[in-house]
Design a protein that fits this description.
Elements: E1 13-15, H1 17-25, H2 31-40, E2 52-53, E3 56-57, H3 60-67, H4 71-83, E4 87-91, E5 102-106, E6 111-113, H5 122-127, H6 135-138
Antiparallel strand pairs: 1-6, 2-3, 4-5
Helix pairs in contact: 3-4
Length: 144
């Protein structure tokens, strides 16, 4: 028997467990939001960008299709998580037609692509540097 070794790369997404536990204790996230964050982890990239795939940004309709959810549900969940400081939308400045209007990023204090906090690009840390101004987010037990 011959075992052939193949080169494999694995994308690793890490949830910041102390902060997830903290959110659970404070009932900060709904079950739907928690499930959505878990599903979003499948589309994170090394810049903690949520909706980039194969060199372009997914529209919310494409993201809804990929997640097997309605566009309305996706919009509601994204809006709620953005208000809570867990997602950040930035205007996509591309002038190409049929591209996503917004680029979305996940807060690295909750979930991030990579095994160690030092792998988080400084530009992403800056996106979430401003306080959300709510008592739960202000007291996160662990900050990246």
């Amino acid at each position: 028997m011959v075992i052939q070794e193949t080169e494999r790369t694995s994308n690793v997404v890490t949830f910041v467990t102390p902060n997830i536990s903290y959110f659970t204790e404070h009932k900060y996230l709904t079950d739907a939001e928690m499930a959505f964050l878990f599903r979003l982890s499948t589309v994170l990239d090394s810049d903690n960008c949520i909706n980039r795939e194969r060199g372009h940004y997914l529209t919310q309709s494409e993201l809804a299709h990929r997640m097997e959810m309605s566009r309305e549900t996706i919009n509601r969940l994204i809006g709620g998580l953005e208000r809570k400081g867990l997602l950040k939308k930035e205007l996509n400045k591309s002038d190409i037609a049929k591209v996503a209007q917004y680029i979305m990023f996940a807060n690295p204090n909750i979930v991030f692509y990579g095994e160690m906090s030092c792998a988080i690009p400084l530009s992403i840390k800056h996106l979430f540097a401003e306080p959300v101004r709510n008592p739960v987010m202000d007291k996160l037990p662990f900050r990246i």
